[in-house]
Design a protein that fits this description.
17 helices, single chain, binds magnesium ion, about 375 residues, Hypothetical protein af1432
Length: about 375
């Protein structure tokens, strides 16, 4: 489907490494477009709407959820891919799927579930995203999961321990042979970071947990803020913030494009295999890396560790651990579809059940199990 200009080292859907279960080529759309469509139609994708990014879903209607976060990642990723003549559809598919395995309550939920699963192989949301598209979605007549292309699955699996990699077969092999994924996967990865650093500033300011004054020493923010205030001295604060953030995103995206073009030019890349054997090529310039790091450090200290965020994290920890322990102690409390699997691997089945929950479902389930007045 030569509808877009692709660089020779772009991922080409016409020569995909294919799907686990063979399927005929789709009509009227590319293999990667089909992957993207399957991801959008999955139930795990719809659940992202009710999963926390930083702020728990019921805290406000305007904060990012995992769904809007994933859409922002896809938007940023596609912009970068198009400029670099890489495959936009693949970047979009990976971006939309990258958080499908996330637990309720953001990173607090993932940490809690990982601690619960310590003796049973741990829990990692990134591996779980792959598990969702490979195994857990039950929609198609001919296979479990979504039967996605290798390239999409490779992009979803961002990082992986050697032990896990050895169990995952082809998709895990690059972690054992020290290879990189395709450029489209590298773009989705960096777009994730650009998206959350920026929207967390926006949500942080909106919530009042951080202030413009606090952001003063963060140069990436304050340089753009000064610029906006100079050009628009009378602009309302909410618009000043948005104008500043859109300029930050623009600066970061332009920097990635410029630096990546240089990195690509310094290599001899004739195909995707050359990309896999090259170092990581999608990257910020050194100066931008430093500015970006400054922003990340600020968010960690002032937003992610804010006492109000910590309170929610502590609550999330309690809910997840108590649910896990209850299901481990008495497997008859599990819904029947998880109970069947429980015969073989009970702890993993409990983790699958909990990881699939939305924030509000987890809260309700906790109430149903522990509150005497509920049934
Ligand atoms: Mg993400």
């Amino acid at each position: 489907m030569p509808d877009i200009r692709l660089a020779p080292y772009a991922s080409n859907p016409a020569v995909t490494r294919g799907r686990k279960v063979h399927e005929d080529a789709p009509l009227g759309r590319s293999e990667f477009q089909r992957d993207r469509d399957r991801i959008i139609h999955s139930s795990a994708f719809r659940r992202l709407e009710y999963k926390t990014q930083v702020f728990v879903n019921h805290e406000g209607d305007l904060f990012r959820t995992r769904l809007t976060h994933s859409i922002e990642v896809a938007q940023i990723g596609r912009s970068i891919a198009r400029r670099l003549m890489l495959n936009e559809d693949l970047v979009e598919a990976i971006s939309l799927a990258h958080d499908l395995g996330h637990t309720p309550f953001g990173h607090a939920g993932q940490d809690a579930l990982n601690a619960c699963m310590k003796e049973y192989g741990g829990f990692e949301h990134n591996l779980q995203s792959l598990r969702v598209v490979d195994v857990l979605e039950e929609r198609y007549a001919d296979f479990d999961g979504l039967n996605l292309c290798f390239e999409t699955r490779e992009g979803i699996l961002k990082h992986c321990s050697p032990e896990h990699a050895a169990q995952l077969g082809e998709v895990g092999s690059r972690f054992l042979t020290n290879q990189r994924p395709a450029l489209e996967a590298q773009i989705a990865n960096l777009s994730d970071e650009i998206a959350y650093n920026n929207h967390d500033v926006d949500d942080g300011l909106r919530s009042g947990l951080i202030t413009l004054e606090q952001l003063g020493p963060v140069r990436l923010f304050s340089n753009h803020l000064t610029e906006v205030r100079n050009i628009y001295p009378a602009l309302a604060e909410r618009r000043v913030i948005h104008e500043t953030i859109r300029r930050m995103i623009n600066t970061l995206v332009s920097d990635v494009i410029n630096q990546t073009e240089k990195n690509i030019a310094a290599q001899t890349l004739n195909n995707v295999d050359d990309v896999r054997n090259a170092p990581n090529l999608v990257a910020f310039s050194e100066p931008m890396l430093a500015l970006n790091r400054e922003l990340k450090t600020f968010l960690r200290l002032h937003l992610y560790r804010h006492y109000r965020v910590m309170r929610m994290s502590a609550k999330a920890h309690r809910i997840i651990s108590e649910l896990f322990n209850a299901f481990m102690e008495d497997r008859r409390l599990l819904p029947p579809q998880f109970l069947q699997a429980a015969e073989k691997e009970h702890a993993r089945s409990v983790a699958d059940y909990i990881a699939g929950m939305t924030d509000r479902y987890a809260i309700r389930e906790h109430r149903r199990i522990f509150a005497v007045e509920e049934i």
